[in-house]
Amino acid sequence: DIQMTQSPSSLPASIGDRVTITCRASQDISNSLAWYQQKPGKAPKLLLYVASRLESGVPTRFGGSGSGTDYTLTIGSLQPEDFATYYCLQYYTTPWTFGQGTKVEIK
Amino acid sequence: QVQLVQSGAEMKKPGASVKISCKASGYILTTYPVHWVRQAPGQRLEWLGWINAGSDNTKYSEIVRGRFSITRDTSASTVYMELSSLRNEDTAVYYCARDVRYWGQGTLVTVSS
Fold first, then answer.
1. What is the pLDDT of residues B10-43, one digit of tens each?
2. Which secondary-structure segment (H or E) carries A33?
């Protein structure tokens, strides 16, 4: 199985900050990487897929980059509604595997 | 538009079984696989298995193998997951997903004596 290592696990930040979250796969996943945002009690919401393709309706302050084994989610200017937990998912092969999550919280 | 609508919350005792449905609309069920994912309280998401809704082939995760099955009813455009011999640690929200873009709303399964 492909292991996904996500960091950091917790990220204190302020409104307006630029935030970066990383995921490293245990092998090349050929950009088969999605990012989700999850708020308490809610289903995960897709932000990006194929590493950098923005899902319809997602604000452009969210961006994705990377290739091979290393991928990054960037929030350009943190907004109040962005405080949440973020997960990466590799879907290059089954079993799908998720990162352990990054909780973006108010500094 | 593509939608996956899951059945409602379930409360079960340890040792029982639970069956959850996932009704697909907006596309032809047999043209895409359906995955099942769960999230226990405070835990990361974990993939449980998938079904090729066209061929009926399935693949299951080691974490539930032997207790888990996925079936489909093409006439009802619905996929089912069943988890047996439930344990307290199976308490989780269960999601079906066609792919990374289209997920069901989730079904809470609570296992408690």
1. 999 999 999 999 999 999 999 999 999 999 998 9
2. strand A33-38
